Amino acid sequence: MPKNSFMRFLYYLLLVVACSCIGGKHTDPVWKTYGSIPVRPPESTISLTYDGGNTYWALTSSKGSKGNTLMVLPAGKKVWEKETLSHAPSGLWHTVLADEHGMLWLASNKSLLYCDLRDLSQGWTEFTGLAEGDIMDLAIGSNGSALLGLNSGNLIEVDLEKTTKDGTSSYLPSLKVHRIPKGLKSLSLDDRGDVICVTTEGSLSVDLGGAWMENWEMVARMPGSNHDLRGDVLDHRFYMAGGLTAEYGYPMDSYAYSKLFAFDPETNNWEVIADLGVPRVYCATGTLNGQLWVAGGDLLPEKGERHTTRMVQKVDPKSGTVKTAPSLNNNLSAPLAFNSRGRLYVMGYTNWLGDAQAPLYVTSIGEGETQWRTEPTGPEGKGAIYGCKYKDQICIVVANTYLALFDPITNQWTTIDMPLKVRSPQVASINDEIWVMGGRDTNNQAGVQIYNLKNKQWKMGPDLPRELAWGVGFNLNGQLYVTGGAAGKSYNNRTFRLKNK
């Protein structure tokens, strides 16, 4: 892909939409900030939001109208259209808000509605049982759910517990009410995750207990939720290829990516730098001689079934040119790839879906070589591995078993018992420590375990901002990041960075 046609997703730049007063309850504009948008919002937009499926939503108003119009810009489209799938009711809505759990909210002064973006055909449901007063503003709380402020002096956390039976979803609503001064004008969150309530009498900070922002900050959003990820760093940028989500587009559906993504820490932007020509999942992304190499994993062709591949592609990060590289000698459904001492190592289990344990398959290739070299096998295990590089060593988490380090100089593996055995965590190294973050098969899927390579001791770290597995961790310019993944209520499109203290 030529550089001048790169699809830049300039998330976390400032897009400000002045939201006019609906119903005459207050006259000050309400300023909403979201990531930048690829297509100019419709005229008369009063509220704008972005969901985890790479779709934008807007409320528009017109003079003399009895109700406002809900508009949608579906993922990948260039034209706004009137939303029709959910049959949004007419009303004097002043805010549309997509939370972090796959729900879309509509608020007027007197009513609050919600709709599941993963099942728009169910339409809208009214959230009942709210306290007296007019709804003045909506925001996303630190827990990813909606917050609403009423002019009667009530700050309300709303939540929905989704259950599915016989293919039909239902939602159990709940709420928590906090007293604040009357005359609310706006809601926002500070750097700690506390809620800032601006009222006619001034501002008030309310601690609701979601303190992950003391340790983490959200710095970007990917162009759509994504998981089953691997990646590596080249020239101060992080790269990852492919991935899969069940929450993409309008309406939300399963989607596999054929793109190679890059994250720039200077601008906090994600960018698509190449199209690989076919969706790839669980593929390894590594570096060799200034090129990105995408190896193995599964292909999901438009015509045909998902299947494991030996295919390797190399991409020039400057031009986006994609070329075929030497194929792997073995099928690897969920490999990792890291460069150590000028060689690209790819490793994974050949029995990914089997029950039996097997040795880890390891192969490598160097600059100018046309065939992969088989290396000594690694520790026994099964399933997908997740890992990182520490100096010249490669570190992996073997599912529900142990941490393992590979030294390419000696071709030796060292295994390390873990306090809590997990599957499919996010893994990164920083300051002589290996951070094992989240993962499945554990009571706390946001929990963080840290292994110090100097004193050879484990300790617990600050919980992730949310439950996560199947995402990817990375160290970029001495900063620790986590992006993508899924667990809990939804897939994830957010990129988090550990705060330096």
TrEMBL record:
SMART domains: Kelch. The keyword Membrane does not apply. InterPro entries: Gal_Oxase/kelch_b-propeller, Kelch-typ_b-propeller, Kelch_1, WD40/YVTN_repeat-like_dom_sf. The keyword Nucleus does not apply. Coiled coil: none annotated. Pfam families: Kelch_1 (PF01344). Residues 1-27 form the signal peptide. It comes from the Bacteria. Keywords: Kelch repeat, Repeat, Signal. This is Kelch repeats protein. It comes from Zobellia galactanivorans (strain DSM 12802 / CCUG 47099 / CIP 106680 / NCIMB 13871 / Dsij).
